[in-house]
């Protein structure tokens, strides 16, 4: 089973061997509705697909450090990309409009910024589907800070727009970098680019960290759906000013031990599931089978010896 898993998911000790499983599944089974595709095409206005997509999960924060770190990451990607006569086309996606405006200002003269302004889209369209109305599928009040105030269909348009990226997807955040949303976005983008027009340069996925997020290593990356949670332990690098880290398209799981440095609290949580993860990131191979054996219900066999009717004095003579 382990060898079969390696053939499917790659060898955990060799990051470049890991295939884009979720991206290929996403590409094969999920496609945008015509109204979503129409919105994506409205943003692009017949122009080429974007070169870079940037997703900033800011939770309504007006922090300057996160967008500035992302700006430096964008510059790094542009510098390392094949030279072009025109400015790089960069899609900006964020739950916080302030961040989009700030990055747009910083990127002036550096890149051509693309952003889905859903309110302008609604105003410019006639006979618009109810699905794309301003009040359709609004987030509940308790989720506004987490998801933003825009209708949820906007996030779908943003995903399929950002998945058109040709060169790179960059994830930045106020607190936790590499969310499930941007992981799937990057995976889909990578799957779409594979083999297009003989392009031999695979799309890359980057995580942008500002100094406060990595002052104590990656200990703050604690969300279960976040790429870097498994690397927040004592082996993670500290006291960095910023980081534009190349990130696996297929996120590492808890059993991909050689590349991990988990937090002690995560070790305890995994132990509840029967997986013992050492501080070094290594998984104790016998821990799960041992727990399964301990929890396996045992079948006890009892031999019942029934007394004879004479002993019970219940025999009847005919």
UniProtKB/TrEMBL annotation:
Domain of life, per the record? Eukaryota
Pfam families on file: DUF7810 (PF25102)
Please name the InterPro entries in this protein's record: DUF7810 (IPR056712)
For this protein, the record's PANTHER family field holds: EXPRESSED PROTEIN
Q: Could you tell me what this protein is called?
A: Uncharacterized protein
């Amino acid at each position: 089973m382990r060898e079969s898993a390696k053939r499917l998911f790659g060898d955990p000790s060799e990051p470049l061997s890991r295939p884009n499983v979720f991206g290929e599944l996403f590409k094969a089974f999920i496609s945008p509705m015509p109204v979503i595709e129409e919105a994506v095409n409205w943003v692009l206005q017949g122009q080429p697909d974007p070169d870079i997509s940037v997703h900033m999960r800011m939770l309504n924060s007006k922090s300057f450090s996160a967008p500035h770190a992302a700006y430096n990451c964008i510059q790094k990607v542009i510098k390392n990309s094949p030279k072009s006569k025109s400015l790089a086309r960069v899609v900006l996606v964020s739950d916080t409009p302030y961040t989009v405006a700030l990055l747009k200002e910083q990127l002036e003269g550096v890149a051509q910024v693309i952003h889905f302004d859903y309110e302008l889209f609604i105003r410019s369209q006639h006979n618009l589907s109810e699905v794309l109305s301003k009040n359709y599928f609004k987030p509940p009040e308790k989720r506004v800070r987490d998801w933003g105030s825009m209708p949820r269909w906007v996030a779908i348009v943003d995903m399929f727009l950002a998945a058109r990226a040709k060169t790179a997807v960059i994830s930045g955040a106020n607190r936790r970098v590499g969310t499930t949303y941007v992981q799937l976005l990057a995976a889909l983008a990578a799957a779409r680019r594979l083999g297009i027009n003989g392009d031999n340069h695979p799309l890359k996925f980057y995580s942008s960290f500002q100094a406060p997020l990595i002052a104590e290593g990656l200990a703050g990356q604690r969300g279960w759906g976040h790429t870097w949670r498994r690397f927040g332990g004592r082996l993670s690098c500290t006291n960095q000013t910023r980081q534009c880290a190349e990130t696996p398209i297929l996120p590492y799981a808890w059993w991909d031990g050689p590349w991990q440095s988990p937090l002690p609290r995560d070790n305890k949580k995994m132990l509840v599931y029967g997986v013992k993860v050492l501080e070094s990131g290594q998984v104790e191979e016998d821990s799960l089978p041992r727990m399964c054996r301990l929890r396996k219900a045992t079948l006890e066999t009892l031999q019942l010896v029934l007394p004879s009717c004479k002993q019970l004095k219940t025999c009847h003579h005919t």
